[in-house]
Specification:
Radius of gyration: 26 Å
Number of helices: 11
Number of strands: 15
Structural class: alpha/beta
Distance between the termini: 97 Å
Low-confidence stretches: 1-31
Order of helices and strands: HEHEHEHEEHEHEHEHEEHEEHEEHE
Strand order of the largest sheet: 12-10-9-8-6-7-15
């Protein structure tokens, strides 16, 4: 009898322990299933009130707003391109981030290297072009917004001379300079664009100095492809006109800004996060523009006539509808600034050709360095 009681007690104890372990395991599994998707963002500059990095951070916030407790986002700012980027990416992967957005061209190679060591992590290379099974790329057709800004600049300039402060002579920047010039000269055929190269993305003092130099050379409207708001502040200080880029920069230059070209990343980032959550994420290459809502021109300044605003917005609609392509030659050849025909009359550049632009269009005073 005693032995039977002891045996039953042992069996009950084991059953109880088994139930407890099973329940704990189920609870643990449920908790793990409910864990949010960790998403990391890597930024090449500090998060400033406006600019390239600000727009990506607005995109990150849009993911938080759309997906709530399903995700947990974080970012690392001011990360130099190169070896330090690789260290940061490894840290993010080891911290459990399953989706990582790298928001500068120079992160492409470090990202590919880290991705090979973390095959269960999805990487998104923004402005990169190399893919892998767990690495996708995405970019925006910034040049579409540049063309539209050129139209506004051409209508507003009194000196017929525009300035352009540029970071590096890579295809993306050359596309922008050329599209801006084509838009400018579509309404002011004699207009010229003067370019200053910085060979840096983010250096506010140098950006400001470059703008001031251009203003001393008859430039009365200026555009830029760098990371800060220094060019806009310089235009405000000198009483000149400027094109806001990346973000609406009217708070920095309320009188100077005539229009802004905005980059909108929120929808894309949210779609990609959803794809990871539902298991549908695939590598690929996205290049979206006005039609896809990744580029928008607006936020006109107080001095821009309604007729000019209407013209720019009408051309923006034409781009969205496929009726206007900045790199299409209408009735005349498009030549570079050394006289070579680059787009024959009636023809348009395809995406592959646009992505490899290494020349400056007629009307630009400057060289590809």
């Amino acid at each position: 009898m005693y032995k039977n009681l002891v045996g039953r007690a042992v069996v009950l104890a084991l059953a109880s322990t088994s139930f407890f372990l099973s329940s704990s395991l189920l609870s643990s599994t449920a908790a793990q299933a409910a864990d949010p998707l960790k998403i990391g963002f890597v930024y090449v500059t500090p998060v400033t009130p406006a600019g390239w990095t600000r727009q990506h951070d607005e995109g990150r916030k849009a993911v938080d707003a759309a997906l709530g407790d399903k995700v947990k986002t974080s970012f690392v700012e001011n990360v130099p391109e190169g070896p330090d980027a690789e260290r940061v990416l490894r840290d993010l992967a080891m911290q459990g981030n399953k989706l990582i957005f790298t928001t500068s061209f120079g992160y492409m190679e470090p990202g590919l290297k880290v991705a090979r060591d973390f095959p269960d992590v999805k990487f998104e290379s923004i402005t990169g072009y190399k893919t892998a099974p767990n690495v996708a790329t995405a970019n925006a057709r910034y040049y579409e917004g540049r063309y539209l800004a050129g139209v506004a600049a051409g209508r507003m300039s009194k000196t017929h001379v525009a300035g352009y402060v540029a970071g590096f002579p890579i295809p993306e920047v050359l596309q922008g300079i050329n599209a801006f010039t084509l838009g400018l000269r579509s309404v002011d055929p004699k207009a010229q664009v003067k370019v200053v190269w910085l060979n840096e993305w983010f250096n506010p003092p140098k950006e400001r100095d470059a703008a001031m130099t251009l203003f001393n050379q008859d430039v009365d409207v200026i555009a830029f492809h760098t990371g800060s708001t220094a060019v806009m502040a310089a235009a405000q200080e000198r009483g000149k006109m400027a094109i806001g880029y990346h973000s609406d920069m009217s708070k920095v230059a309320p009188d100077a800004q005539i229009v802004a070209v905005q980059h909108l990343w929120g929808d894309y980032y949210t779609q990609r996060a959803r794809a990871v959550l539902d298991g549908s994420w695939k590598s690929g290459n996205v290049w979206g523009g006005v039609k896809e809502g990744m580029i928008r021109v607006g936020n006109f300044g107080p001095t821009v006539p309604k007729t000019v605003q209407a013209e720019v917005l009408a051309r923006q609609k034409d781009i969205a509808d496929g009726k206007l392509q900045p790199f299409r030659a209408a009735s005349a050849d498009v030549r570079d600034n050394e006289g070579k025909v680059r787009i024959p009359a009636g023809k348009a550049l395809g995406d592959a050709e646009i992505l490899q632009i290494d020349w400056l269009v007629e009307g630009v005073q400057g060289r590809v360095k």
